[in-house]
């Protein structure tokens, strides 16, 4: 399906996606759409797609209403920080226009990522059974689990990176699940993937391993060592990356219930939230591996803002 067809489906016509001050136009040949996968095709076919493409977009994997209810639970708690427009249903996640006290929002978020409810959402049987199958054994969920909310009309966007940079202290057989908690149409700035970039990530990681050989063991696994760019990012300039690697950024209209899986070598980023209905983008990104593989001990703690991972 062409980007313009998809963009029209989401009611936007041609759309300019923005990240770090750079524009990715849906009219450009450097932008395309991710291909959805029906979870019913079975684990072998899913594993093949994951290996071929570096990602699998599992459509409608979780019950939509459960995901929306969890969104309501999160924003119901965050409402006391002033994040949610007064008199609206927390499940809609409509952002208030108020200037917020960042500390209150951060404190609330740090409580929520330590909650039983969030743990249960990430470890729900549908996901844990699937991960056991995908990883051919007993799956392990890293304790450091990230939940992100992005306010509409802000410049927040995740720069391009691949996950292994932050997880070098254990196995590279990691699977990231990025789960939209609510609908995230293209204009709300969900994850975008650099097509075919899992091979690029493998090459980059090999080069870093060579450069890092002389560093201390702690520095060698750090995303912030002297051989890395600030933050461990590959780049903040998404259009330039697509040109440089002669490829495309792939975007999607994600819906509540979808689960995205990506390889730790797959380069991804996000664009800004330009939602005209002022909805907050809410998602979680969590990592699984086979429990028998080496575990990066730095991820054995809950996510803390500024934990330098
Ligand atoms: O949600 C985002 O903006 C970034 C998520 C991410 O980097 C990941 O899932 O690995």
TrEMBL record:
Stored InterPro entries: Phytyl_CoA_dOase-like
MF term (GO), any: 2-oxoglutarate-dependent dioxygenase activity
One matching Pfam family: PhyH
Protein known as: Dehydrogenase
Origin species: Rhizobium lusitanum
């Amino acid at each position: 399906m062409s980007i313009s067809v998809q963009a029209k489906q989401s009611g936007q016509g041609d759309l300019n996606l923005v990240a770090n001050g750079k524009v990715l136009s849906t009219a450009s040949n450097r932008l395309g759409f991710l291909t959805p996968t029906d979870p019913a095709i079975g684990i072998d076919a899913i594993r093949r797609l994951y290996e071929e493409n570096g990602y699998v977009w599992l459509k409608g994997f979780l019950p939509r209403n459960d995901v929306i209810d969890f969104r309501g639970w999160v924003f119901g708690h965050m409402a006391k920080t002033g994040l949610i427009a007064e008199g609206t249903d927390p499940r809609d996640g409509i952002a208030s226009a108020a200037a917020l006290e960042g500390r209150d929002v951060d404190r609330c978020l740090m409580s929520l990522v330590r909650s039983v409810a969030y743990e249960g959402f990430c470890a729900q049987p549908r996901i844990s059974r699937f991960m056991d199958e995908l990883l051919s054994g007993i799956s392990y969920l890293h304790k450091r689990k990230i939940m992100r909310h992005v306010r509409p009309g802000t410049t927040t966007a995740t720069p391009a990176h691949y996950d292994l940079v932050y997880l070098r202290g254990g196995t590279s057989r990691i699977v990231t699940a990025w789960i939209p908690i609510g609908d995230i149409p293209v204009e709300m700035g969900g994850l975008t993937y650099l097509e075919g970039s899992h091979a690029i990530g493998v090459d980059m990681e090999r080069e870093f391993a060579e450069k890092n050989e002389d560093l201390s063991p702690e520095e060698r696994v750090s995303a912030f060592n002297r051989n890395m760019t600030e933050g461990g990012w590959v780049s903040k300039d998404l259009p330039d990356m697509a040109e440089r690697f002669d490829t495309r950024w792939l975007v999607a209209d994600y819906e509540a219930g979808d689960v995205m899986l990506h390889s730790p070598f797959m380069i991804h980023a996000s664009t800004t939230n330009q939602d005209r209905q002022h909805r907050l983008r809410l998602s979680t990104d969590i990592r699984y591996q086979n429990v028998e593989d080496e575990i990066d001990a730095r991820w054995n703690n809950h996510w803390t803002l500024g934990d330098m991972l």
